[in-house]
Design a protein that fits this description.
It is built from 21 helices and eleven strands. It is mainly α and 496 residues long. Among the domains are: 155 residues, HUPs (Rossmann fold), CATH 3.40.50.620; 49 residues; 103 residues, Arc Repressor Mutant, subunit A (Orthogonal Bundle). The protein starts with a strand and ends with a helix. The relative contact order is 0.08. The mean pLDDT is 95. The protein binds one RNA strand of 76 nucleotides through α4, β6, β11, α12 and α18.
RNA sequence: GCCCCCAUCGUCUAGGGGACUAGGACGUAGCCCUUUCAAGGCUAAGACCGGGGUUCGAAUCCCCGUGGGGGUACCA
């Protein structure tokens, strides 16, 4: 099985592309075939070199490696359509010679005017056929004379075109509703409709998985291939992704608004936010595909084993970022401590903190069940790496407790910590429990005082283990500061 | 306008004539566990778009309607 992913380098790689690439990749791996990366850059005007770079990074991050492509080469190159111009021209001329295509000399202005007219009369918006009947000799003469031209496919005016999609079955189109699509632009470069059909043939692509937005031009593609006397690949049209509301495709406005609220369909953003690629893959794989009525957790290896075209859905799917978070958390937890630690490190260092391997390895298990994305790490561990911490006095006193009691708790804690050889679970957990019992307080309240004093935040990883990482000296210093603050609060209150 | 695709809980989906009292997951609510927050466990609410057929029997097959989506470029 030979499959390809043919992105056009015009924008940032997003979810839709990622899924198409993924499914293609899975099929290739599953069958021991090849996954081809082909850059479809036939539109000079929209070409963006940054986009190609982003594409490569995104695919690599997701773990989708290709067997043939512009960077790795292969037996069927070049893998960049702009470098295959002559081939397309040759095939286009073949189509002209066989009467399946024709030269068209209509100017954009004329065509535009025609469209306006058709729109006014509520007619189908289609090429009027002006140059359809110009004789080949005359057309060739005009071309030779240097007149600007495009090459259009000559769509039959009668009959139907039947095509077969693997998940939808047969689809039939009335030829009369189809257009004489342009195959070669006036700049001499083929458009998608010709270029990818030609490439798929010469690159021996056996299965085409592409977005559903190609169904309207599906009959054109089939006819181009048939006119050239080639065999069609198996066609699979993937359903589209809709915005979270389910109302329509994602627009530029939508994606920008999304990024404002910390969500994004761009792979590079997910990378930056610290989503594990495994989670993104699992999530996106399940948008439009399912395995059975129970299984939802998949690693790449499992997807390679279990993916199948038959289980693909034709229904468009609304993007659900909550579900991405779910899969993200699942895969964070599925990572080994060492692996997760390695991925967490850059997020800690990006904050300007230095962390030794031993500390990192002890810290990671504390974080593992709590993380959705890795960019949350700094907020969890900041108090461990900062030299000082400044809790608000009022925050030191738990709800439903008075300042004097909080002070007593803090003092009690101080004694416990000072007496402990090291701040380990075995050394201090029981004494803390005893303290709570003695003072007739809930364990949570007692911990709250300690937590606020040591971390200056109400939510932390397990406190005892965190204090062990912080070190006895810093911990006690902070607790003492807390005691002072509470003393001031208590004294101040009694002064009034 | 015209062409095409699609239609099960809010969302992603299982289901391909009887196994359906319609299953799972996310989210939501509650409970358990618990030093905070999570994680984990349990429970609950929640869907077959409408109408006609076909059939002994339809979520499943057909038709119409409605709704949603896509296309309608010298973009892909």
């Amino acid at each position: 099985m030979r499959v390809r992913f043919g992105p056009s380098p015009t924008g940032i790689t997003h979810l839709g592309s990622a899924r198409t690439a993924l499914y293609n990749y899975l099929l290739a791996k599953q069958t021991g075939g090849q996954f081809i990366l082909r850059i479809e850059d036939t539109d000079q005007k929209r070409y963006d070199p940054a986009a190609e770079n982003d594409l490569i990074n995104s695919l690599k991050w997701l773990g989708l490696s290709w067997d043939e492509g512009p960077d790795v080469g292969g037996d069927y190159g070049p893998y960049r359509q702009s470098e295959r111009k002559a081939l397309y021209q040759e095939m286009a001329e073949k189509l002209v010679a066989s009467g399946d295509a024709f030269y068209c000399f209509c100017s954009k202005e004329e065509l535009d005017a025609q469209r306006q007219e058709q729109k006014r009369n509520n007619q189908h918006l289609r090429y009027a056929g002006t140059c359809r009947h110009i004789s080949l000799q005359e057309a060739q003469a005009r071309v030779a004379a240097g007149e600007e031209y495009v090459i259009r496919f000559k769509m039959p005016k009668e009959g139907t075109t039947k095509v077969v999609d693997s998940i939808r079955g047969e689809i039939e189109f009335e030829n009369a509703t189809l257009d004489d699509y342009i195959l070669v632009k006036s700049d001499g470069l083929a458009v998608y409709h010709l270029a990818t059909m030609v490439d798929d043939h010469f690159m021996k692509v056996t299965h085409v998985l592409r977005g559903e937005e190609w169904i309207p031009t599906f009959p054109l593609h089939a006819r181009v291939i048939r006119a050239l006397g080639w065999e069609e690949p198996e066609w699979v049209h993937l359903s589209l992704f809709l915005k979270p509301s389910g109302k329509g495709k994602m627009s530029k406005r939508d994606t920008e608004a999304m990024q404002q609220s910390g969500e994004s369909i761009f792979i590079r953003d997910m990378m930056a936010m610290g989503y594990p690629p495994e989670g993104v893959i699992n999530w996106v794989a399940l948008m439009g595909w399912s395995y059975d009525d129970q299984t939802e957790f998949f690693t790449m290896d499992e997807l390679i084993k279990k993916f199948s075209i038959e289980k693909l859905s034709a229904k468009n799917a609304a993007i659900d970022f909550k579900k991405l978070d779910h899969f993200s958390g699942l895969h964070v937890r599925n990572l080994s401590t060492e692996e997760l630690a390695g991925r967490i490190r850059p997020f800690i260092e990006a904050e300007g903190y230095r962390v030794d391997e031993d500390t990192l390895l002890k810290l990671t298990p504390l974080l593992q069940p709590r993380l959705i994305t890795l960019d949350e790490v700094p907020n969890w561990v900041r108090f461990i790496f900062e030299d000082e911490v400044t809790p608000g006095v009022e925050d030191l006193v738990p709800n439903g407790m008075d300042a004097a009691t909080a002070l007593a708790v803090a003092k009690g804690m101080l004694i416990i910590l000072e007496e402990a050889r090291a701040l380990t679970h075995e050394n201090i957990e029981q004494p803390i429990r005893d303290l709570a019992v003695e003072m007739d307080l809930k364990l949570g309240q007692v911990f709250h005082v300690l937590r606020m004093a040591v971390a200056a935040q109400a939510v932390t990883p397990p406190l005892i283990e965190s204090m062990e990482l912080l070190g006895k000296e810093k911990t006690i210093k902070r607790l003492k500061d807390g005691v002072h603050l509470l003393e001031e609060l208590v004294n101040g209150a009694s002064d009034e």
